[in-house]
Specification:
Elements (H helix, E strand, L loop, with lengths): L1 H21 L2 H14 L5 E4 L2 H16 L4 E3 L2 H4 L12 E5 L9 H9 L4 E5 L5 H5 L2 E4 L15 H20 L6 H9 L3 H6 L3 H4 L8 E3 L4 H11 L3 E5 L5 E6 H8 L5 H5 L8 E2 L3 E2 L5 H11 L3 E4 L11 E4 H6 L3
Parallel strand pairs: 1-2, 1-3, 3-4, 4-5, 6-7, 10-11
Antiparallel strand pairs: 7-8, 8-9, 11-12
Family: Belongs to the SIS family. GutQ/KpsF subfamily.
Keywords: CBS domain, Isomerase, Metal-binding, Repeat, Zinc
Protein name: Arabinose 5-phosphate isomerase
Length: about 325
């Protein structure tokens, strides 16, 4: 337990040093790196060897998944022909704690010859890598968690954190309009739980002839037929102009039929006497987890989708709780 706590303490100390550096010279270099990447017409090739190589792979994946085209370039394979993947409009991002990793030398030379910008993440600003770099992201020196201060531990944690900071700084610098990022992110993550969490109502809703609607003045008997035929356990009630003024649910029917009233008279009543007015509605961009959370909290099973959240709007779709469960929430 003591060893484990010591490891975390040393890695936390390294992250604190990294944060302090970001508030000064490293932060200025990071801004330059973000500006450079935003001007690219090509992609970022992330490289490194050993433990830095593993961090480089993760950084390439993070960049790609947040909308910045990137790929990992293995330095050994690069020197055996894969250098051809580097194009003049690309950028090389190299990770090396020492900055003097021999396997990176062919990549450094090629980048210099082809005038390909090079961003270096290293702890040694006078190293071969740093001296050849267009921009140096200098990681502060820190003590490895290894008892002999040898095995890359604190250093790789710092590289990982700096890579995340760079990737997300690029993402935020692109300044997608409010509400656009979840849709863009989901386009890159359509599968699994993450894809389900980012699914908007517009991708789930039923439209057209599947929508259960009756007009104000419709007898309750006709509303029940509409509810039964559409299978959502509810029907919307529209004004003559097409605005959603209420909803009739299975619960509304149960409450109505539980009262001491003539059943035939009840079935002939206009639906607005039974409906729940001003039902909860959602917009097309509402995300699936938020919809499910509200449904669970309010014990409802369906919601109409309105493009414009105004009293005059006509619903464009309906989302049922089963649609949310079907995608794995």
């Amino acid at each position: 337990m003591t060893s484990a706590l010591r490891t975390l303490d040393l890695e936390i100390a390294g992250l604190r040093l990294l944060r302090q550096s970001l508030e000064t010279h490293l932060g200025e270099s990071l801004k330059k790196a973000v500006t450079l990447t935003l001007s690219l017409r090509g992609r970022i090739h992330v490289t490194g060897i050993g433990k830095s190589g593993h961090i480089a792979r993760k950084l390439a994946a993070t960049l790609t998944s947040t909308g910045t085209p990137a790929q990992f370039l293995h330095p050994t394979e690069a020197s055996h022909g894969d250098l051809g993947v580097l194009q003049p409009e690309d950028l090389l991002l190299a990770l090396s704690w020492s900055g003097d990793t021999p396997e990176l030398l062919p990549l450094i030379d090629y980048a210099r010859t082809a005038a390909i910008p090079l961003i270096a993440i290293t702890a040694h600003p006078r190293s071969v890598l740093a001296l050849a770099a267009t921009i140096i992201l200098e990681v502060p020196q820190a003590t490895e968690a290894c008892p002999d201060n040898l095995a890359p531990t604190t250093s790789t944690t710092m590289q990982l954190a700096l890579g995340d900071a760079l990737a997300l700084a690029i993402l935020e610098a692109r300044a997608l309009p409010n509400g656009h990022y979840p849709a863009a992110f989901r386009a890159l993550h359509p599968g699994g739980k993450l894809g389900a969490r980012l699914t908007p109502a517009s991708a789930l809703m039923h439209t057209g002839d599947r929508l259960p609607f009756v007009r104000v003045g419709t007898p309750l008997s006709a509303a029940i037929v509409e509810m039964t035929s559409k299978g959502f356990g509810a029907t919307g009630v529209l004004s003559p102009e097409g605005a959603l003024v209420g909803i009739v649910t299975d619960g509304d029917l149960r409450r109505s039929f539980s009262k001491p009233v003539d059943q035939s008279e009840l079935m002939s009543r206009p639906v607005e006497q039974i409906m729940t007015p001003r039902p909860w509605t959602i917009n097309p961009d509402a995300l699936a987890p938020d919809i499910l959370s509200h449904m669970n909290a309010t014990r409802i099973t369906s919601a109409f989708v309105l493009v414009q959240q105004t009293p005059e709007a006509t619903p464009q779709g309906i989302v049922h709780i089963h649609d949310l469960l079907r995608i794995g929430l």
